[in-house]
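User: I'm preparing a small set of examples for a lab meeting where we compare how different chains pack in three dimensions. I only have the primary sequence for this one, and I'd like the structure in token form so I can line it up with the others. Please keep the answer compact; I'll paste it straight into my notes.
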Amino acid sequence: MASLWSFRGPVNHSGERSQNPPTTSAEEEEGEHRKLEKLAVEYNFLLKSQLEEQRLYYERLLRAEQIADCNQKQWKERVRLLEEQNARVEQQTALRIGDLEGQVRDLMFYLDTQYKVEQSALPRGYYCTSFRFSYTRKRAQITDTSLASLYHRVAQSKLNPGRQVRTTPARTPSSFGRKTKDKKN
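Assistant: Understood. Below is the structure token output for the 185-residue chain.
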């Protein structure tokens, strides 16, 4: 058996070894060298274009991630500001409701006191039915009006949080029913 190292040359068709070494011309070597150079240039160009595409792809991904982070920070800040604004509006609404409830309570106290005074002014045995009826009806109207006004103001404050809804100052029972005096010249 012949080893790889015992090769002495190419074998012809009859099985005999040829004594002539294989000849290659300089042109053939030059042609193969050009082919290899072209392949190397094509490979380098392909590699370079693929690397450039990958670089652009990852830069776009990085830019999109940075934009998403920035948007997330902006939305978090907006949510925080809206929560603070909502808390302020709720606090202002609670104060307004408390003020209006105080006004309704003062008005009811005044009407109750007025009714008791009128009842005590009548002689024994007499009953003021007309006042009682009008008093009850007036009390129901005032309560309905106060609640409707209260709900309206709360709704307005939620729709227009920046706009201040005017509230009237609480009136004391002594200021109800007073008539203004005309100024004398």
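A couple of notes for your slides: Residues 29-162 form one domain. The chain is about 70% helix and 0% strand.

User: Perfect, thanks.
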